[in-house]
Amino acid sequence: QCAQLGAGPAGAAAGRAASCLRQGATPPASSSLPSDQRRRIAGFGSVEISEARLHQLLEAEITSIAMREAQPMTLRSILKMGADVKTLASVLHEELPVRFAQRILMLES
């Protein structure tokens, strides 16, 4: 259902948000939320969510990413990949969010 937008990776959540919009689900009216508690989410349109919902979505995203297992990396392995910039960028794009999310959860506990 549309209420479960926070589960999964950001791309999947955005896809579900777009799907909900296509299905005719409507966000709360702008006037129903105080202006300091609304955020706009860019995508196929815009959806306004409350500050509390934003925090729920962020927590779900951090938890989801942190559950993935970080692949072991050494400076030597990074330097070997450095010859192929696209491979290095791809690996870092996958691995850095996992490490950041795990660190965030560690700091919050």
Précis, in short:
The protein is mainly α and 109 residues long. It folds into 2 domains: 1-64, no CATH class; 68-109, no CATH class.
Account of the 3D structure:
A two-stranded antiparallel sheet has the order 1-2. The protein folds into two domains: 1-64, no CATH class; 68-109, no CATH class. Strand 1 (38-41) and strand 2 form a beta hairpin. The radius of gyration is 18 Å and the shape is elongated. The longest helix has 24 residues, at 85-108. It has helices spanning 10-22, 51-66, 75-81, 85-108, and strands at residues 38-41, 47-50. The two termini are 31 Å apart. It has 109 residues and is mostly helical. InterPro entries: AK/P_DHK_N_sf.
Index terms:
single chain, 109 residues, mainly alpha, 4 helices
Layout of helices and strands:
Blueprint: H1 10-22, E1 38-41, E2 47-50, H2 51-66, H3 75-81, H4 85-108
Antiparallel strand pairs: 1-2
Helix pairs in contact: 2-4
Rg calc: 18 Å
Task: Give me the oligomer status.
Answer: single chain
> Given the helix and strand composition, which structural class is it?
mainly alpha
For the record, give the distance between the C-alpha atoms at the N and C termini, rounded to a whole number: 31 Å
Helical segment tally?
Answer: 4
Mean pLDDT: 74
Percent of residues in β-strands: 5-15%
Question: Helicity range of the residues?
Answer: 55-70%
Give the number of domains.
2
Spell the H/E element sequence: HEEHHH
Largest sheet: 2 strands, antiparallel
**Number of strand elements:** 2
Outline the low-pLDDT stretches: 1-31
Give the strand order, joined by hyphens, for the main sheet. Answer: 1-2
Q: Describe the global form.
A: elongated
